[in-house]
Amino acid sequence: MAMSGNPNSLSREILRWLQSLDLAYSIKNVKRDFANGFLIAEIFSRYFRQGIQMHSYDNGTAIRVKKDNWSQLLKFFRKSNLDIIDPNAVTQIIHCEDGSVATFLVAIYKLLTQREVQPVVKRPPLTKTAQYMRHTGSKVIKDTLRTGDFSEHPDERTTAVALNQVLDDHESTLQHDKAMDPNRFSSISLSGSKAPNVSKTMEASKGETPQITVEQIQVKQSNRNIAHLRAAQDPGASSYANNAPASNSSPLQPQDHQQEALHESVTSSFKPTASRGSRGGAGVAEMLDGIVSAEYESFLVFAGELVGGNAKAVNASDDIFENVCRAAEDVAFAAMEGNAASFPYLCNSFSPLLKELVEPSVTAKSVFKSAANAFSLIGESMKAIDPEQTATLFFATTLPKLAPLLSAQPTKRGALCECFYSFIECTVPAHIAAVKKLQTVLDDVPAFVHALTALVFLEDESLFQDAASGADLLDLYLYYSLIGLSQTSPSIR
User: Fold this and answer.
1) E strand or H helix at 333, and its extent?
2) Domain enclosing residue 466, as ranges
3) How many angstroms separate the first and last alpha carbons of the chain?
4) What are phi and psi of 317, to 5 degrees?
5) Is residue 27 in a domain?
6) In a domain, 368, yes or no
7) Which of 113, 138, 161 is the last residue of a domain?
8) Which CATH number characterizes residue 68's domain?
């Protein structure tokens, strides 16, 4: 159903339906975009996958292409017993007649969705249409010649007779309007001179001119230079914040020998036979092993059985992770003050838990949440000791392990984002740098945009209080929101 005022407009109900179909081309001009039948075929292909083959249709603008597409559609309608359009209406759609496409879309909406279109209540006009806004005789002739009947059958005699009839109808309409409201046409005589009552009408229309008060405003000068503005719009324009290492490279590519040794010390899976007394992370290992020593040989043994679904490990998980939370500060000090492998050992103990603990059952979901909460609490404790070093270790060791999880396991993104921000200092520069670092590592735009919807709710409202720095963080979220709106997926948008 066309909306009031424009026969080619569509109601919001039909527009939402068309957007939900995720068509190949966006709708900009209704009567032109649907004229060749390509989008009509794509709509029916969503409901009749076997009856419509899109490779048979061409998205061209030539009359030959339009007729070929509609010929295939009419065959499909007859074969499927869908009596929704006749050849005459197809001709009107092909030649972009006003209201033809809107009427047909209402018909197929009712057919395919089994719903009625809500009628649009048209407001009555406040005043009568001005004479200069009405169609003239030449306008009526031009609109008539553009219709499909005259374009398909350009017979001169038939055209002349039809145009004479159209002009007669137009003249009859004008005479009827003059008879119904003679005062409306009394301001100008047939000779073109002004009638005597024109000046009176103009004088009568004059009234008191309302007084308009203009309030003065004060323009606030911005202290942000062009570099800050570009940094707020381009996520790659600014380097790492002042309280984080200045680097635009991926954390998977170490920049010095110390980071390279740090990466080599990180294992990719559980290794219960790891050396507990060796130099590599002995402090962290002893603390974690001491928590589970009553029932298990080591924390890694417990984690391996927990991932394997051992009932004993699942039942003991709540108490063990609660004890980890109580010892979070001690574990954080051991991870910060130990050697280069201390924090990687901690990461290697929890990242497989976050990866392997699935969420198909209520039990598994609660175990995963407990592990994520314990790891987040350790991150908060480390951040309180040295936020800069904590962010450096997290970006180099843990973020590369969390990125694949954020991409492949959308149900865990909320908890993983909490772990992510627990290792980042709660300041605007640190959060901006962290979001940009996440975008660099996470090579998946839909997953990154979805992760931002979780991070934005983790932001502290106090960060937006400062006019300058809060605006930078807000600009960053708005920038990535525009990227999300440009995606083809309706759920992402």
Assistant:
1) helix 328-337
2) 242-485
3) 26
4) -65, -40
5) yes
6) yes
7) 113
8) 1.10.418.10
Strand partners, 194: 188
Do the beta carbons of residue 469 and residue 428 sit within 8 Å?
Answer: yes
Q: Which residues pair with 188 in a beta bridge?
A: 194
Phi, psi of 229 (to 5 degrees): -65, -40
Judge contact between 419 and 376, C-beta under 8 A.
Answer: yes
CB 396 within 8 A of CB 259: yes
Backbone φ and ψ for 100, nearest 5 degrees, come out as -70, -45
Buried-state track 2-34, b at ≥16 Cβ within 10 A, e below 16: bbeeebbbbbebbeebbeeeeeeeeeeebbebb
Would you put residue 411 in left (φ > 0), alpha (ψ -120 to 50) or beta?
Answer: alpha
**Residue 273, Cβ neighbours under 10 Å: how many?**
9
* Residues 404 and 354: beta-carbon distance below 8 Å: no
Question: Looking at the structure, do residues 331 and 470 belong to the same domain, yes or no?
Answer: yes
Domain count, the chain: 2
* Among 201, 207, 203, CA closest to 183: 201
Note whether 107 and 246 are same-domain residues: no
Query: What pLDDT tens digit does each residue of the chain (493 aa) get?
Result: 444 457 778 888 899 999 998 898 888 888 889 999 999 999 999 999 888 888 999 988 898 999 999 999 999 999 999 888 988 889 889 988 888 899 999 999 999 998 888 776 666 555 566 665 667 777 777 777 666 666 665 667 777 777 778 788 888 887 877 777 776 665 444 444 444 444 444 444 455 556 666 566 565 555 554 444 444 444 443 333 333 333 333 333 333 443 344 334 433 334 433 333 333 444 888 888 888 777 788 888 888 888 888 888 888 888 888 888 888 888 888 888 766 777 888 888 888 888 888 654 444 457 888 888 888 888 888 888 888 888 888 888 888 888 888 888 888 888 888 888 888 888 888 888 888 888 888 878 888 888 888 888 888 877 777 666 667 788 777 887 877 777 777 777 7
Within a domain: residue 70? yes
d(CA 344, CA 338): 11
Rounded-to-integer distance, Cα 4 and Cα 303, Å = 65
Number of CB atoms found within 10 A of residue 362's CB: 8
Task: Tell me how many degrees the CA angle 178-183-185 measures, rounded to the nearest 5.
Answer: 55
Q: Which amino acid is at 234?
A: D
Residue 50 falls inside a structural domain: yes
DSSP 124-191: PPSSPPPGGGS--HHHHHHHHHTSHHHHH---HHHHHHHHHHHHHHHHHHHHHHHHH-GGGG-SB-TT
Domain boundary among 113, 134, 156: 113
Identify the helix (H) or strand (E) that includes residue 300.
Answer: helix 299-307
| DSSP assignment string, 21-36 | TT-SS--SSHHHHTTT
